[in-house]
Amino acid sequence: MGYGTLENGDWLMVGMSIFSKDRSVELRMQDDGKLAIYYNNRCAWQSTDQQISNAKGAIMQGDGNFCIYDKNDKATWHTNTAAPTGDNKTFVSVQDDGNLVLYKNGGATPIWSSKSNK
């Protein structure tokens, strides 16, 4: 897959970041358990207002759901995009326009967005 993407089974652990293709947009898995999008030196979006002190990271699951888990393997946030039979061609992408988008069918169909356009 391309730059700034997480495919099925890929983790973004606490303290890690991925960037859009032009590197202007950062998706960061923060120590407080929130996924956050940064551009222009500001936080443009966060997954939740709640802090999770024992966050593990975020995973693009094989069922099509993008989730944050704590260290006890409990899901603390998700995109609610799981397919009943799974979709092994889903991925989440940090885009140059400031959006985090989850695609299915190998990129043909967007199914979730952070709505954090620049």
Automatic annotation (TrEMBL):
InterPro entries in the cross-refs: Bulb-type_lectin_dom, Bulb-type_lectin_dom_sf
The keyword NADP belongs to this UniProt entry's keyword annotation: no
Residues in Bulb-type lectin domain copies: 3-115
Keyword DNA damage among UniProt keywords: no
UniProtKB keywords: Lectin
Origin superkingdom: Eukaryota
One GO molecular-function entry: carbohydrate binding
UniProt protein name: Mannose-specific lectin
Organism: Fusarium globosum
Source taxonomy: Eukaryota, Fungi, Dikarya, Ascomycota, Pezizomycotina
